[in-house]
Specification:
The protein contains 2 helices and 3 strands. Strand 2 and strand 3 form a beta hairpin. Strands 1-2-3 form a 3-stranded antiparallel sheet. The longest helix has 29 residues. The two termini are about 30 Å apart. The protein has about 110 residues and is an alpha+beta fold. It comes from Halorubrum salipaludis. This is DUF6788 domain-containing protein. InterPro entries: DUF6788 (IPR046738).
Length: about 110
């Protein structure tokens, strides 16, 4: 581990870099956790938008419950340090979720 502070990515706005530099270690860990969750959310939103735009409807997967639309995707949610699979889909302006199963750590 280096004793020099890390170099921020060149594409980060100066205001964000300054805010991070002024934060204590606990706040930085909270920011990192939030940033990762937000990135996953935005990626999931983009996938849902993309799948909604596709005209082809794929065959219904065997493990897809009847109440879940065929365009649903599987996402992983971290809850209390445990990971779970959820079906997720867009219904109008809302994103809906339904529990599927726990994530197998051996996968």
């Amino acid at each position: 581990m280096s004793y020099e502070p890390p170099t921020p990515p060149a594409n980060l706005p100066t205001e964000i870099v300054n805010t991070l530099n002024e934060s204590d270690p606990e706040q930085l860990r909270d920011i990192a956790t939030y940033a990762e969750a937000l990135a996953q959310h935005k990626e999931r939103e983009a996938r849902l938008e993309e799948s909604a735009d596709q005209e082809e409807v794929e065959d219904r997967p065997d493990d897809l419950p009847d109440e879940i639309p065929t365009k649903a995707t599987i996402t992983i949610k971290n809850i209390n340090e445990n990971r779970y699979y959820y079906w997720q889909w867009r219904d109008g302006d809302q994103v809906k979720s339904k529990y599927k199963s726990p994530v197998n750590p051996d996968e």
